[in-house]
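During data preparation, a discrete fold description was generated, and the record follows.
___
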Amino acid sequence: MRALPLAVGVSAALHAAAFAWVTLANPSQPGPSLHAEPDPVADSVPAPVAVPDPDPILAIALLDDHTPDPIRVLDATALSHATSRGTSQISASHSGRTSEEPATGKGTGAGKGLMSMRGPEVSNGLSGDFIGRFLDSSKPLEPEPEPTGELHPSGNGTFVGVVGGDIDHPKDGVATMRVANDGTVKIEDAPDITAHWVKPLPFIAGKMAFDDAIMRHYGIDPYAAAKLQWLDKTRDERVRIGAAYRKEVLAHADLYMKQNLDAMWAATATADAAQRKRVLFQMWDEIAETGDDALVQAGVAARAYLVGFVRAHFPQTSADAFTAGELAQLNAHRTSKAMFAPYE
């Protein structure tokens, strides 16, 4: 086992002796110079371009907030040391401090991975300042009018009131005010002479207004001012009643159209087909086309029902169907914008 080191040492000594003998035996020949003489051939060849050293390895810092962090430069040794442990350097602050996170895609944020995109934080809902400013600058809703106590329900959405009298004895007053469900009023003047038993007392009460009768005879209403005052007092309340009724009617426009068509069909039982078709066109032409959204939608529904009624009673294939000439003549006198074309 000691023969190999001894042979290596002998070989090294022989090579050193040979090199010394060659050098000492030829002292006139110059040794190798570190500064070679210019070579004309070599000078004509462009010098090779020096290849710069590879750039330092760049590591991108993934941030958990919204502020960009400058790219950090790591040398190969540090990167090799980091990757040898199976971790990557992740910046978690603006100052450049790093914390080691496993390279499994789980960051510091809950549910956020390294490959997940991160956007600006968005808060849900309106700020309290905005809502406060909006409410301050908004016009408050007008409160509903307080009941006047003058209107008493009389069934089917109608009301009744008495001017200058008791609701239990309307004839003893000035007039009876009957309010329809659309808010309109029908005035019934009380008789000038009335009488009724007063309960539980056994006597008769009433009025004998001969002067009122004389004034009415000459066309003068002695209680016109009292009636106008009652109408002014109940105006807002009656407007609210009419608005509710209108909403109900428009919501069932097709039902009301059915009722009108049935009544028309019964009233024209002895009429010929031409007359009935003209009445159907007039009903279609009178339906509203403009107004608020509720009115327009009700008009569309009513016309749709009427067109269906026409197709059921005057089919296009029947002998009584609307002819092209009839439709042209009817449309020439229409007041609506749309064309009456029940078969299209």
